[in-house]
Amino acid sequence: MPQSDYSFLKLPRNLQDLQILRDNLEIYTSDYTVQVLVGYCLVYVFMQTFMIPGTVFMSLLAGALFGVIKGMALVVSTATAGASSCFFLSKLIGRPLIFSLWPDKLIFFQDQVARRKDGLLNYMLFLRLTPTLPNTFINVASPIVDVPYHIFFLATFIGLIPAAYVTVRAGIALGELKSLGDLYDFSSMATLFLIGVLSVTPTLISKKKV
User: Fold this and answer.
1) Which residue among 34, 38, 41, 179 is buried most deeply as judged by most CB within 10 Å?
2) Which pLDDT belongs to residue 204?
3) pLDDT of 157-184, one tens digit each?
4) Nearest residue to 80 (alpha-carbon basis) of 148, 11, 140, 158
5) Residue 180 burial (CB < 10 Å; 0-12/13-18/19+)?
6) Where is the signal peptide (predicted)?
7) Pick from 19, 8, 68, 11: nearest CA to 178
8) Closest CA relative to residue 83, chosen from 13, 155, 35, 31
9) Is the pLDDT of residue 208 over 60?
10) Which of 86-90, 96-100, 167-171 ranks highest by mean pLDDT?
11) Separation of alpha carbons 80 and 16, rounded Å
12) DSSP 176
């Protein structure tokens, strides 16, 4: 990449920035696929780990550059890796931060986790599939309230699929988006709900068998 092209390599903060980044990266994606993939993964994981806003733009970019299937695999895997990094970082140093930022949410979350030990995977899936609690808060608070990592990992990996599908699919038609609100039209919300139900159904069936 010539030095003159470095100016467009910045985290997108709006759809205009994202379109500029997409237009320039498309040139390199076909010839330098591995380098673009590695760079994308590092940036996404870094943003998730340190709670930097803007991952929705990165999800849109995945759809624009790699299509629905590859884009979804990329977003779900990097988002889960980033959330896991945030989980372990919070386990080491996050307790003072979360007590100062979200004391009320933490008390609520701790109470809910304690009451739902037997069906904790169901509850964590529910949180990932709905806007009940922010994903950033879930990443930071889970180790503090003793959510086991394997439960956190499964709920994150499965629960992120519906939203990833909606944003990655929207990224294919990036030029038609006027605002982020356009992501969640009736069709998208219906798709999100359907995939969410399909994602949580195996867990519900296994619980009934028990």
Assistant:
1) 41
2) 58
3) 988 988 898 899 889 888 777 777 777 6
4) 158
5) middle
6) none
7) 19
8) 155
9) no
10) 86-90
11) 27
12) G
* CA–CA gap between residue 203 and residue 196 (Å, rounded): 12
Give the DSSP letter string of 113-136.
HHHTSTTHHHHHHHHHHSSSS-HH
Chain centroid to CA 94: 20
CA distance 115 to 89: 26
For residue 185, pLDDT beyond 80: no
pLDDT of residue 19: 92
The tokens describing 99, both together, are 């007590």
Band of pLDDT at residue 77, cut at 50, 70 and 90: very high
Please name the amino acid found at residue 193.
Answer: F
Between CA 44 and CA 84 the distance in angstroms is 12
DSSP letter string over 46-111?
A: HHHHTT-S-HHHHHHHHHHHHHHHHHHHHHHHHHHHHHHHHHHHHHHHTHHHHHHH-HHHHHHHHH
Unique residue bearing structure tokens 């009940």 = 132
Please state, in angstroms and rounded to a whole number, the distance separating the CA atoms of residues 111 and 139. Answer: 17
pLDDT tens sequence across 143-161: 999 999 999 999 999 889 8
Largest CA distance in the chain: 62
